Amino acid sequence: MTTPDIPRRLIVAITGASGSIYGVRLLEMLQGTGLETHLIMSRWGARTLVHETRYTPEQVNALASVVHPLTDQGATISSGSFVTMGMVIAPCSVRTLAAIAHGLGDNLIHRAADVVLKERRKLVLAVREAPLSEIHLENMLKLSRMGVVISPPVPALYSRPSSIDEMVNYTCVRLLDQLGIHIETARWAGLGSSG
Prior knowledge:
By secondary structure, this protein is an alpha/beta fold. 36% of the residues lie in helices and 15% in strands.
């Protein structure tokens, strides 16, 4: 008996934390890969996007295969029978982190993450907050113990990035790695010999 292949579908969510460019760049990187992207953007995610970037919510929506309204609890991605590779929330606000950690499904981002958890699929959270309180850390630990990947968008400086874009690209490549999606760009080649 053979196991059917998992459909190449990924849920991408953008919340209101600073760093909306990470969600945008993930969608850009996935263009032309044959992967079906399902986007959910919170109201504050859309507001932060306009404040921090040159993108409009409409432009970001156009990067996704499917866009789901935040309030649509009847969306396909709110059901475990709709098979996906998993979900990445970038950036992930600490409010969203708390809602997921405590099973609150009051919007589609929270509900989709809950489905990913209950179906034992991959959930990756680019939690964006500093400094972190004990509450934040406890919520992260709780989810990490459930198999959730907590991957804050911390810039890697050993590659000597020459622009913010390079730092964003590197972080997004690492987020996708966690989902088994490998984009061969913006990778660090190592220190090499010190010869």
